[in-house]
Amino acid sequence: MSLETIEQARERLCPYLVPTPLVLSAPLTRAAGRKVWLKLETQQPTGSFKIRPALNGALAHLEECRRHGVVASSSGNFAQAVTYASRELRLDAQIVMMRNSSPYKIAQTEALGAKVVLCGNTFEERWETTYRLVRETGRVLLHPYDSLETIAGDGTLGLELLAQLAGDFTAVVPVSGGGLIGGIATALKLRRPGCLVVGAQPEENGSMFRSLEAGRRVNVGPVRTIADALVASTPGERAFEIARQKVDQVVLVAEEEIVRAVRRLAVEQKIVAEPGGAVGVAALLAGKLRAGAGDVVCIISGGNIPGLALARLLEGV
Amino acid sequence: MSLETIEQARERLCPYLVPTPLVLSAPLTRAAGRKVWLKLETQQPTGSFKIRPALNGALAHLEECRRHGVVASSSGNFAQAVTYASRELRLDAQIVMMRNSSPYKIAQTEALGAKVVLCGNTFEERWETTYRLVRETGRVLLHPYDSLETIAGDGTLGLELLAQLAGDFTAVVPVSGGGLIGGIATALKLRRPGCLVVGAQPEENGSMFRSLEAGRRVNVGPVRTIADALVASTPGERAFEIARQKVDQVVLVAEEEIVRAVRRLAVEQKIVAEPGGAVGVAALLAGKLRAGAGDVVCIISGGNIPGLALARLLEGV
Questions:
Q1: Number of domains within chain A
Q2: Residue A317: pLDDT band with limits 50, 70, 90
Q3: pLDDT at res. B317
Q4: Cβ–Cβ contacts within 10 Å for residue B61, how many?
Q5: Between chains, do B47 and A270 touch, taking CB under 8 Å as contact?
Q6: Residue B202 contacts residue B279 (beta carbons within 8 Å)
Q7: Contact A270 B24 (CB under 8 A)
Q8: Do residues A229 and A48 touch, judged by C-beta distance below 8 A?
C-alpha cells in the first residue's frame, strides 16, 4: 500500500464526501491530562467511516460494477455504506448479512434500497455465501476490510487528519478486520513517522491483538460483543501485514469500559457513538494508552445505534 | 450594533475558541427536500453557544472584572459559560439561578467553580437578585442576552457561518431573550442581505413572537417548556429592536415537535441536542419555514441535557 494509492482514493471520493469534523474535546482533555481530539466519522452520510471504502471500491471499478452489480458482506455499517454508494452511483447491490445481525441495521440497509441476503451466524458462513454469490452472479465483490481499494479508502481518513492537525500525535483506531487501522497507519507512518498508531479492540474479540502476539493471523471464533461493528474473528491478510509493520500498540477494552465511553460521549461531548465507535475513547479513559508525545486523536468510527439501545446504555440498565 | 463591533468580538474570542463544525445533514436534507446544514454549538467547550457572549463580555472589561469579579444570571447554559470563562481568565464569579433550575445545570455550574446564588422562580426575581448583587458588591454584570458585548459575541456565530457557507441561505435560530438571533441577524443582513433569518421559539414561551406581533416588548409571564434554555419571558430591549428590523420570521413549535427533533437528531444525525437547541430543527421538520432560496442552516445552540432525560426522550416515555 503506497501513499499514491491513498491519494488517488482521496481524489475519487472528493466529489462525494467532505472531510468530517475534528473537534477538540474539553471534557476528555480534562480527563486525560493531554489534548484529546475526536474525528467524527459519525457525521458521514451513512453514520460511519465505511462510506469511504465502499465508494472507493465501487469507483475504482465503476464500469464493471455498473455492468454486473456489486455484492458485499457486512455486520451492518459496510452494508449501509455499499447501499448508499450504489444508490449514488446507480449500481445494483446485494448485501450478505448474518441472520443475527442487528435488526436495526438490516432494516436500515433495506430501507436504502439494497437486497439483503441473510446467512448463518458465523463469519465463515458469511464469506461462503458471499463467494458463492460472486461465482454464481458475476457481481463485483466489495470487500469490507481487506482489499487494496478498501484500505486505500480507509486511508483517506489518515490524510484528513494530517491536514487537520499539526505535529506528531497518537491516533487511536477501532479495530475489527483491520482495514481502517491499516489505511490510517499507512498514511500517518509514511507522511509523519513520529505519529503513533494504536488499535483498540473489545476483549470479547481480540483477534488482531492475539494475531500480533502470535505473529500470525489467529481466528478467535464467533464473537459476541456490545460493539457489534467489531466482530471480524480474524484480521484481513493485507491488514495484518500492515499492522505488523506499522501499528505501535493494540489494546483490549472490557464491555463495561465501552459502555462507559458511549455514555460519557453522549452526556459530556454531546455526540452519539455506537459501542464500536467508542472503543478508542474507552481505551483512553481506562488509562490503557502508553504515555506518548503529542495530542491524542480518537477516531469515532460510527454512530449507528438504535435509539432504544442508546436509552438503555444511558440509563445504566 | 455594527459589523465592526462583531469583528472586534471575533478577534477577542480567537485565542479561546475555534469555529464550531458546520455539517451537512444527509437525513434532514432527505426529509426537507433542500440542503440542510447544522451548526454544532454543542461542540463548544461548555456545550452551548453561550461561551461566546460570556467570554466577550469579560474580555471587553477585563481589568474591571479582575478587580471586582463578575455576576451573571442564567437558566443554566450562560451560567456554565460565565463560570468557564471566569476560570480561563481568573475571575471571581457569582451566578444567580432560579431555585427550580435544572439540578443538572446547577451542579455543572458549581462543579466548574462558581458560587451559585439561588433565587425565586420568576424571571423578575432573578433580575432583582442580580441587580442587588451588582449594587452591593460592585461586581461587573455579564448580561445573558441584551448587552452590546453579548449580542456582539453571539454575532461571531454569524461571521463563522458566512465563512463556512457560500451564497444566500436561511438561518434558523433558537430564540429566548433574543441575543443570539440579534447577533446573527446583524452579521448576516449587513454582510449578505439576501440571507433570511428565522427565529424558532417554543409555543409555551412565544415572547418574541408575540412582541413582534404587538410591535412592543410583551412579557408572557412564567414560562414552562421542555426547552429549559428558552425561558426568557420577554425579549431584551436591544435584541427586540434588532429583531424588528432584521428578522424575517419567528415560528412557534409545540413541545412534541421539539421532542421529536431531539430524537431524530440523536438517532439519525448522531448528535445530542438539548430541547432548546433543537427548536430550529423542530420548525423545519414541522414544515413551518417559508419556502426560500438557498440552503437551510439550523443552529444547534446547545446540548446540555442530562443522560437520563435524554434516555426518556429516546424511549418516547
A1: 2
A2: low
A3: 57
A4: 16
A5: yes
A6: yes
A7: no
A8: yes
Contact yes or no for A311 and B307 at CB 8 A: no
pTM: 0.93
By residue range, what is the domain housing residue B176? 3-48+147-315
- Its ipTM equals 0.92
Query: What is the 3-state secondary structure of A4-23?
Result: HHHHHHHHHHCCCCCCCCEE
Question: Are residue A31 and residue A65 in the same domain, yes or no?
Answer: no
Residue type present at position B313: L
CATH number at residue A67: 3.40.50.1100
Q: Which of B273, B306, B314 sits opposite A310 (nearest CB)?
A: B314
Which chain A residue's Cα is nearest to B311? Answer: A311
Is the same domain home to A66 and A182?
A: no
What nine digits make up the cell of B223?
Answer: 414560562
Whether residues A44 and A61 fall in one domain: no
Band the pLDDT of A76: cuts 50, 70, 90.
confident
> CB A315 to CB B307 under 8 A?
yes
- A-B Cβ pairs (cutoff 8 Å, strict): 76
H or E segment and range at residue B264: helix B255-267
**Rounded distance between C-alpha atoms, residue B72 and residue B61, angstroms:** 14
Q: Name the domain boundary from A142, A171, A195.
A: A142
Q: Is the model's pLDDT at A248 over the cut of 90?
A: yes
Contact B272 A273 (CB under 8 A): no
CA angle A127, A128, A129 (to 5 degrees): 90
Q: Is the pLDDT of residue B219 over 70?
A: yes
Main-chain phi, psi angles of B300, to 5 degrees: -90, 95
Candidates A40, A269, A307; nearest CB to B314: A307
CB atoms within 10 A of CB A306: 17
The average confidence (pLDDT) of chain A is: 94
Same domain, A15 and A128: no
- Calculate how close chain A gets to B158, using CA atoms only, in Å: 19
